[in-house]
Specification:
The chain has 601 residues and is an all-alpha fold. 63% of the residues lie in helices and 2% in strands.
C-alpha cells in the first residue's frame, strides 16, 4: 500500500503525456503524479498479498463447478471407494478380518504424551508477544540484537522438540508429526516477530522522515511549517484554476465536495482515515472557492484535523514527539504531508513523499486499517495462530460469518479421506516395505501406485480439509492453499503451486529477505539459498523419522536446480505435454525410491 496520489483511470488512447505529468486527452488535461518509490523503504510486506480466493476442490468454488473435467473428480472418489470395499472383502475372505489395526496401534502409542507435548509447543509460541512488545517499547532493538535473540529462540524450540522426540523413542508417525508441527510453529513465530520488528524499524524511520520534513520547511521556507502548508494549498488552488481554464468548467458554480482536479482528488482518496480525508477535502474546497480556510466553522473536522495539539487555533503546529505517536494521532501528520507533496519546492515534495511511503507500510490495506503498533496484542496473535497461513499480516481478508455446514462437510471429508489413507497404508504399503534381499526394481514397481494414492489423499486432507476448516473457523477468506500443481511442466512450477503456505513463507522470509539484506546477491543465488534451506529442513525430518543420516532427500531436492534450468530450454518449455509427463514420472518414481533408499540402505 502506498499513499501516492494517482489517478484512478487514465484513457489509454488519444492522450499525450508531458514531463510535468499532464495528459492531453479529448476530454481535457489530466494531471497525474509520477510514481514514487522511496529508496529507504524495502517494501517487505508487499512481496506477498492476500485476497479472497477459494481452493480448487472446494464445492463452493464456481470455477471448479463449471470445469469440464469435474466429472473425473467424482470418478476418482467413487473408484477409490470401490477399491477400498474390494480390499476389505478380499481381506475378510483371506484373513477373517476386513482390516488389521496394527498400524493404528503403532501411531496411537503414547498419544496422551504426544498431545500434551504438542500443546506445550503451541503455548510456547506465545513468547512472541512479549518479545514484540519489548521491541515496540524500545527495550530491545530488533536490528540486530532482536534478530539474534529471535533465531536463538526458534533454534531452542526446534532442538527441544527433537531431543524430546528421541527421548520418547516414538515411532515414525509421532516423530514426523511433532517435527513437522514444530517447523510450522517456528515459521509462524519467525514471521510474526520479523514483521513486527521490521514495522518498528519503519515506524522509527518514518518519525525521522517527518522530523526531517519539518526541519526542511523551517530551513527553506520563510515562515516555516505553517507558511509551507499555505503555499502547498496555493499550489493546489493554482492547479485547480488551470484545470478550470483548460476544460472551460465553472469551478465556482459547484458547491459539493469535489475539488475539481484529479491530482487533488487523488491525494484525498489516498488517505487511510475518512475523517482526515474529509478535513482535507473541506479545506481545499474552501481554497478553490477563494474562501479563507482558517475561517471554517469550528465544529467541522477541517479545523481539528490540522490542529495536532488539539488547541482551538487553526495554525499548523504539528510537533512530532520523541515517543511513538498513538495510532489514531498519526492522521494529522499524514494529512499535512499529503498536502506538502504539492509544494513548489522539490526538496519538500520529495521529503513528504518519503514520509508517506514509509507511513503507508504501517497501515493495513483492509477495511479496518489497522496501524502498527496497535496490532501487538495477545488477541491478535491468537487470531493469527488460528489462521492457516505462515506469513503474518496486519490484516487479512475476512468472511462475514462461520458456516457450520461447511465445517461439518470438511470434517466428514477429513474422516473419510483418512479412512482411505489408512487402508492404503495398512494394506499396500506396510506389507510391501522393501527388505535387503528384495529386488530393487520390484520394490519400486510395488510401491509406486500405493505411494501416489497415499500422497494424493494426504495432500487432500491437509490442504483441502484441515486448512479450509481452520480458514472457515477463523473467517479467513484467502483459501488458495494450493494451485493446479497437477498441470506442472517443471519442478519449480510444482514447488510454487503444491504448498502455497510454505512457498509464500520462503518467498518473503528467505528469498526476498536475502535480496533485501544482501544487494550483491543475485536472484539465482537467492533461489539456490532458498532451495538449500528447504532441502535441509526436509532432510532433518527424514533423519528424525528414520534415525539415519543418508542425505538422499537432500540430494534429490538439490538435483531439482539443474532440472529447473533444463526445463527452461525453449524446446522443452514449449512442449507442455512432454513437461507434464516428465513431471508425473518423476513424482511416481520419487516416493518409492526414497522409501527403498531409507529403509534398505
Amino acid at each position: 500500500m502506498t499513499l501516492e496520489p494517482r489517478l484512478a483511470s487514465v484513457p489509454a488512447t488519444g492522450s499525450v503525456g508531458t514531463e510535468s505529468g499532464a495528459l492531453e486527452t479529448s476530454k481535457g488535461t489530466f494531471y497525474v503524479s509520477k510514481p514514487f518509490r522511496s529508496k529507504t523503504s524495502k517494501k517487505l510486506r508487499a512481496i506477498v498479498t492476500f485476497e479472497p480466493r477459494k481452493s480448487h476442490f472446494d464445492t463452493t468454488n464456481e470455477r471448479s463447478g463449471t470445469n469440464e473435467f469435474r466429472g473425473f473428480f467424482t470418478l476418482f472418489w467413487i473408484s477409490l471407494f470401490l477399491f477400498t470395499v474390494q480390499t476389505y472383502i478380499s481381506s475378510l475372505e483371506a484373513n477373517g478380518y476386513a482390516l488389521s489395526f496394527a498400524f493404528a496401534t503403532m501411531f496411537s502409542r503414547d498419544a496422551i504424551v504426544l498431545a500434551i507435548s504438542d500443546a506445550v509447543l503451541v503455548l510456547t509460541t506465545a513468547l512472541c508477544v512479549p518479545f514484540a512488545e519489548a521491541v515496540m517499547r524500545g527495550r530491545l532493538r530488533y536490528y540486530w540484537v532482536g534478530v539474534v535473540l529471535q533465531h536463538l529462540l526458534q533454534t531452542t524450540v526446534l532442538v527441544v522438540a527433537i531431543v524430546w522426540t528421541y527421548h520418547r523413542q516414538w515411532p515414525w508417525v509421532q516423530s514426523g508429526f511433532l517435527t513437522l508441527h514444530s517447523f510450522v510453529m517456528i515459521m509462524k513465530m519467525h514471521s510474526y516477530i520479523s514483521i513486527n520488528g521490521y514495522l518498528q524499524d519503519v515506524l522509527e524511520r518514518s518519525q525521522r522522515a517527518y522530523e526531517e520534513l519539518q526541519s526542511l520547511t523551517k530551513a527553506q521556507v520563510n515562515g516555516g511549517w505553517e507558511t509551507a502548508l499555505h503555499e502547498a494549498e496555493a499550489e493546489v488552488k493554482e492547479t485547480s484554476k488551470k484545470k478550470d481554464k483548460t476544460s472551460g468548467a465553472d469551478a465556482s458554480g459547484s458547491h459539493d465536495s469535489s475539488i475539481g482536479t484529479p491530482e487533488a482528488e487523488a491525494v484525498i482518496h489516498s488517505l487511510a482515515d475518512p475523517s482526515t480525508a474529509d478535513a482535507l477535502r473541506r479545506r481545499l474546497v474552501a481554497v478553490s472557492e477563494g474562501q479563507d480556510p482558517d475561517k471554517l466553522d469550528s465544529g467541522t473536522s477541517a479545523v481539528t484535523a490540522f490542529n495536532v495539539k488539539g488547541a482551538s487555533s487553526s495554525t499548523y503546529t504539528p510537533s512530532y514527539p520523541a515517543t511513538p505517536l498513538p495510532a489514531r494521532g498519526v492522521s494529522q501528520e499524514v494529512t499535512c504531508a499529503s498536502l506538502l507533496i504539492h509544494h513548489p519546492n522539490p526538496s519538500i515534495t520529495s521529503a513528504a513523499h518519503k514520509f508517506l511511503d514509509l507511513d503507508s507500510e504501517l497501515v493495513s490495506t483492509g477495511p479496518k486499517k489497522i496501524r502498527y503498533p496497535e496490532n501487538v496484542t495477545l488477541g491478535n496473535f491468537i487470531e493469527y495462530m488460528l489462521i492457516p497461513t505462515l506469513v503474518y499480516e496486519l490484516e487479512y481478508p475476512r468472511t462475514d460469518r462461520i458456516r457450520p455446514l461447511y465445517v461439518f462437510e470438511k470434517t466428514v471429508a477429513f474422516m473419510g479421506s483418512f479412512a482411505l489413507l489408512y487402508t492404503v497404508t495398512e494394506s499396500f504399503i506396510i506389507p510391501l516395505t522393501p527388505t535387503p534381499g528384495q529386488s530393487f526394481l520390484r520394490s519400486l514397481l510395488d510401491l509406486a501406485l500405493p505411494f501416489m494414492i497415499a500422497y494424493l489423499l494426504l495432500f487432500y486432507i491437509i490442504f483441502e480439509c484441515i486448512c479450509n476448516a481452520f480458514a472457515e473457523l477463523s473467517c479467513f477468506a484467502d483459501r488458495q492453499f494450493y494451485e493446479d500443481w497437477w498441470n506442472s511442466t517443471s519442478w519449480d512450477e510444482f514447488s510454487r503451486k503444491w504448498n502455497k503456505p510454505v512457498h509464500t513463507f520462503l518467498l518473503r522470509h528467505v528469498y526476498a529477505s536475502t535480496l533485501a539484506s544482501y544487494p550483491s546477491v543475485s536472484r539465482t543465488s537467492a533461489m539456490v539459498m532458498t532451495f538449500l534451506l528447504s532441502a535441509a529442513a526436509h532432510e532433518l525430518v527424514m533423519v528424525i523419522v528414520t534415525h539415519k543420516i543418508r542425505l538422499y532427500l537432500f540430494l534429490m531436492q538439490l538435483a531439482q536446480i539443474p532440472l529447473i534450468l533444463v526445463t527452461r530450454v525453449s524446446v522443452i518449455k514449449q512442449n507442455k505435454l512432454l513437461g507434464n509427463v516428465v513431471f508425473w514420472i518423476g513424482l511416481y518414481a520419487g516416493f518409492p525410491l526414497l522409501c527403498v533408499a531409507y529403509v534398505v540402505y
